[in-house]
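Supplementary Note 3. Input sequence used for the single-chain structure prediction.
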Amino acid sequence: MSLTLRLPSRDGELVPYTLHEPLPDLTDRQPPRSRIAFAAAHVVCNPLLTSSDPASTVLDWDATLAYRRYLWSCGLGVAEAMDTAQRGMGLTWNVARELIQRSLDEARTISGARIACGAGTDQLVPSPAVTIDEVIAAYEEQCAFIEEHGGQIILMASRALTASAQSADDYKKVYGTLLRQVARPVILHWLGDMFDPALHGYWGSTNLDVAMENCLEIIKEHADKIDGIKISLLDEERERVMRRRLPESVRMYTGDDFNYPALIRGDESGYSHALLGIFDGIAPAAAAALQALDANDLARFDELLAPTVPLSRHIFQAPTVYYKTGIVFLAYLNGHQSHFRMVGGLENGRSLLHLSELFVLADRAGLLRNPEIAQARMGQVLALAGYEQ
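The predicted structure, written as discrete structure tokens, is reproduced below.
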């Protein structure tokens, strides 16, 4: 029996929409062999206690950790406490620290669970008055905490460094100091200003070609301490150019939520591994596609990921900083959490029309795993806005 509900169109009218069959259950998958794949995971807040004030943030630890177990069951790694988890958009370092510790503890209970954790400088309020030594000290605190609890570090881009740095030499000083100290190779993080405007001019230049040269200089000098670099510039060709210039031992992790299928699939010049926010939302399709890639079934890889691209481009459309709203809404539709509330009130980051279109795109990609639940929850959201079925 088909399921239908009425969704608002751009002219404000309610239009009938019939749901499709979902992808089959794809949990209990082994990690892929041909690529390393991390999903940057979102957090689930406690809706009774969390308000728009970051100081009020309380996480629903059961639901938050259950989602990480779900990602691991799909064969994906977890990139913890990243921007998808609302670092810099409501999730403070104090809460992130507990999140990191709990997730690392959880990972140890699951055979083969891969996890890496974001280290940043969000103890600091970005300002030119902040010194480079203070930036280093903030990074050192977070790196030490992650390593103390047995985690791999993702060295996140720093708003405080962007505000304080006078030249590329300041970036070289900060990263050089940190990379000489770490116990195991880290993943670097180049987040474009479409994701965070406060990172404009990262690596010491607003010219992306110059910025890339500055970054590559740091990587080549410290290659033995670098596992790889994740870049999120939404620029497919620029990623390929940088990938070709990396030292052989340094991996490229795509963070391109627009062009990930082609970059992961690869070409004669190589391929990218994955560290993606969209993998949080499309985990079943991503898991199946990576298994197909392991089997060298490129047609199946393309078939599985192609329908997810319109969904991802919709979720990550400008203003891109609000992509987290779509990621959490998708988790809500799929029954992974009981509510659509977010840290900092970010559930209001996208319009009702945007969420309705997300619903359709997710359904067309086979990613509404229980259509009955998804239909009911979409109907509840519409009714709350005055659109009764």
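The first helix runs from residue 61 to 73. The beta strands are 4-8, 14-18, 37-40, 77-80, 115-119, 152-155, 186-191, 226-232, 251-254, 273-276.
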